[in-house]
């Protein structure tokens, strides 16, 4: 038998979450954001789950876009960072991709390169995130220039919010709408804005994390309360147990010290599988379907679960690290990170299986 860790991906849950996102923005089309190999879930697997209902897909890698086109997906596919050189621009045109235009260098390439057919583009304005985008106030001049280029079939105005999951969007929204010509298509909403700020929905929303069953603001709103279902369940088994007496320590650095006799289970999952090494003692973990906690430092291939209330647990007992029965948000919060990072960090060595198989 091989090492017992695996990631189970539930396509039906992904589909449910996408349809929920669409229901929360009923006037808009929804880019199904599948960048970073669908946040670690597998781009083709996720796309297949929504093949007949997806309005479009958004990602960064030409290679991932090619995978979708070769698999027969005919929906619009948006390159969220656009193209990086003329070759990329031509390949985007060949694959009939939509491109984000966020920088002067891209406009120059677009203007200078003959294309087989006009492209659809999102013109990205920087309204305060200060990552990608033209200064918002340049919008009128840019629109004139793009129209004059003759290279675009359609232009959507776009921005990205820095605090849709927290303080809010007021300043950025004001700066954006000041530039938005009446009737022009626009796209602004990540998952958090989709759920909290319906005025930002526009023509295309851009849900990502919610499609994978993560809450964009877990401190305020659990994934379950939004109606989202977990898509990835990272599961493994206990491969050894130890019985400690008071004063015994666990793992590297002896970070955990038992203050009474206790039993612990060694779980085949470590940071080389993508489990966060900085998850402290006390991070939630499910053993045999029951909530318990980790103890000691996460090592490369193993972590340790407290078996205090689990006398039946022994070698072979199933463990869920996150997913079905244990929200990834709870593990992420304990580890001081976000579910996005847990999902994306799933290591290539972890076998992935589809739920129901
Ligand atoms: C990743 C990304 C999204 C999706 O964000 P979530 O917080 O995962 O919903 C939306 N828009 C852009 C530009 C992105 O890069």
Q: Tell me what portion of residues adopts beta-strand conformation.
A: 15-25%
User: Poorly predicted ranges (pLDDT <50, ≥5 residues)?
Assistant: none
Strand tally, please? 19
What separation lies between the terminal Cα atoms?
18 Å
**Alpha plus pi helix count:** 12
| Main sheet overview | 9 strands, parallel
Which small compounds were modeled alongside the protein?
pyridoxal-5'-phosphate
Summary?
This protein has 357 residues and is α/β, with parallel strands linked by helices. The protein contains twelve helices and 19 strands.
Description of the structure:
This protein is α/β, with parallel strands linked by helices and 357 residues long. 27% of the residues lie in helices and 24% in strands. It has helices spanning 11-24, 35-39, 43-49, 62-70, 86-94, 104-112, 139-149, 170-177, 191-196, 223-226, 328-334, 339-344; strands at 6-9, 29-33, 56-59, 77-79, 98-101, 119-126, 134-135, 152-158, 186-187, 204-205, 232-244, 249-250, 256-257, 262-267, 284-287, 290-293, 303-306, 318-322, 352-354. Strands 2, 3, 4, 5, 6, 7, 8, 9 and 10 form a nine-stranded parallel β-sheet that branches. Strands 1, 11, 14, 15, 16, 17, 18 and 19 form an eight-stranded mixed β-sheet that branches. Strand 3 (56-59), helix 4 and strand 4 form a beta-alpha-beta unit. The longest helix has 14 residues, at 11-24. It starts with 5 loop residues before the first strand and ends with a strand. Pyridoxal-5'-phosphate is lined by residues 33, 35, 80, 160, 190-191, 206-209, 216.
